[in-house]
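Let's do one together. I've listed all components of the complex below, 889 residues spread over two lines.
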Amino acid sequence: MSRQSETALIIGAGLQGCSIALFLARAGWNVTLLDKNVAGRHASSVNAGGLRMLMRDWREYPLSQRAMEHWEHLDRLVGEKAASACEVRLGVSQIGLALDDAEMSWAVGRAEDMKKRGLGEEELLSREDVRALLPGVSDTALGGLISRRDGHANPAAATRAFREAAVAAGARIVENCRVLGLERVRGGGWRAETSFGQHEGGVLINCGGAWGARVAVMAGQTLPLKTVAPSMMVTARTQPFLTPVVIGIDRPLSFKQSAVGSLVIGGGILGKPCPDQDTSFTVMDRMPQSAAATLEAFPALAHVPVLRTWTGLEGATPDGIPVIGPGQDTPDLWHVFGFCGHGFQLSPAVGEAVAKSLVSGTLEATLAPFDCGRFASRVAA
Amino acid sequence: MTQTTDMRPSVPMDADIIIVGCGPAGMTAAIELAEANCSVIVLDMQPTPGGQIFRNLEDNISQKSSDKQKLLAALGPAYRAGADLIRRFRASSRIDYRPLTTVWEVRPDGTVGWLRGVDAGYLRATTVILAHGAMERPVPFPGWTLPGVMTAGAVQTLLKAGNLKPTGNVVLVGTGPLLLLLATQLHKLGVKPTLIARTDRFSDGLRAMRHLRRNGLLPVIKGLGWLAQLKRAGVRMVSGLSDIAAEGEQKVEAVSFTAKGLRVRQACDLLVVHDGIVPAIDIPNGAGLALQWDQANASWRPRTTPDGLASSTLPPDLQPERCAVRITGDARRIGGAEAAIAHGQLTAQAILAELGKGSGISSKSQQAVDRTLSVRPFLDTAFPPGLSATLPDDNTIVCRCEELTAGALREKIRTGFSNMDALRGETRCGMGPCQGRNCMITAARLIEEAHGACVPTPPVFRGRPPIRPLPLGALAGLNGLDPSATELLTLEDKPEHDVEATSDVPAE
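Okay, and this is what the predicted structure of the assembly comes out as:
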């Protein structure tokens, strides 16, 4: 049975929350987003902006493919002007670089596996291929994997675009509004007690990001989530030489050259999260490994100075993919968080699939792998 | 993969005390501490001891050429006065002096990140003394980024380090003792300034009179001496000017300003600007130390106890048991060389007392600090910030690393980017090589202009390491790492793809 004019209360006005709000509002729902800071303050705006299908967990692949279609036609979702501000660069490709035999054999296995599953967007690259594609790459590079459709976008602008599109579609965003408690409303729905009054909704959607498990606890549900602080380094500007995004296979490496020429180096090195203070700290002691991995791939960059670093707060689940779906026995409470550092690309498809599922009353097939119950059953077993 | 919650150093200490900066305050503290048998490491960016004030003094004094003698005469007795301090510093065998070393991170627990050439690492000590000094107040005005516009401090650096003298039409604009001192020095070197244009007014001097203290008379007399010399030399001087602009195509060709209601234009080859000096706060801000606003000097400074102890603002998880950082000299509070020496000594005495050595802060040291700082209220009133008094117009560049104008920043602030980090993220203001050292105060004031004053302290950019550029190669080989802090923590997101391994996972 389809539900045409329900109310939804979304906790967390990050990219996922705003994307869900956009699709729900367009479906005629009355949507309110609450955010303890300002919309998009955390991981949504400060991630590296990768639009990557390469080396994605196969369980995320169908959702990721659908998301890529949205990114390719972002103007249809958020309007032409906002879409152009998002600096979506697709087709520059992302390359998984194999620097030793173990990484190369993993790449070969991965390519076969994806072919077997019929998820064929990744191609194997030879030693000669990576040399041609990546000027300055180390002589030790053995090859790798490429996903040619991949690219990147400006995360802060994209978060803003989804937010503004959601508001234009009728969603309401209440900022600086910290949820203090959640309770069921007699007769259905949820009430949030906040630092900024009470808010109610027929359906409650927990898009709490790094704080998602804490929000779940307020609703009496336990989900495993670790708060992490992925960190990035940015160098001085150098001569443009690199178009694709390069990521490591076993090495902590993620590497791209920005439009202004600076190198943006990530790779999942973690800083110190301080979720109680809404902040996180760079731990420079861990950065040498990221710098070393970068130089192993591109030895000529040793002289390039790192100018700054940054970190952001993110939630990570034990199995590396998010929870997306209703809580146990709570069809009117959904959890959508724990994207483990790769939720940016998925967001348009997440918003669409969650909204479709809620409106139709039937869970979209693409969301099946992200069921919250997978952790409960693991505990039971 | 457990998260390290205890960030305190668990590796051996490299020294009792690490001192950042080898100017008068750093050298004085180092000598005092070494004499009491403490092990001291001194890190400094320059090749030789002396700081800004005694820059290259050893070399200049050792050479007998007439050029050098002339330079020494011009730089005056206050410069030569540092020779004895440097000699004592060099003579101490317990001081491990490391020149040409840049500090790119300091932590409240006593950890210091350093870079020398292509080597970098961490050092740890029970106490860290920040004696890194001051910087000139940033002054964005139309044309300030043109070649040929220099600060007074930069001209002095070239004089002291390279005996390089400006040629042609030299105009000095701004305020403060350093501007007048430099004009006198240039004149003695045979470079007669074409014009000294001051933003301070006669009335500022009058108002300052009530702050005159007997102890502070000497510097005032010295300053009056400079003015008299310049007057005797027939150097043209105007005061009370406003609305300065540097003009020129490829380089500065002229300076224009308003004085007594009239627009004045003066051709020049070199425009020297100076608007007073302020404590350099990049290290304290990057360390998460508390800052405060110094209204009299219109600048931030670190919040410290009178004996220099800083306080950490880090969250409880990162908070060390005790803050290991003390701040002294101009880095703590602008006072000049004598005040820096006095406070460096006082800080050393406080540290020794903490270590159970010595007899605490001597009344002589306390009196020296009070005496040397007693002229500050007079100077702050007599030379109020002038070039930076009004905010730049829309066309003027504020962030020179990223070439951002005040207008571009104002527009973003109007459209909602009204906190410092949001503004930085949106515009890249403060993201360049200087990491906001030059634009931070102006960005903060532009936000205050739009939204009202942020009392008590204007907002700062969140400081994160490295606060100075750190080459990838040096970072990759970082030494002195604490093994417990370097445990590889990464986001494990390499997907499992092995069919056997995943076959028991229910497919959709």
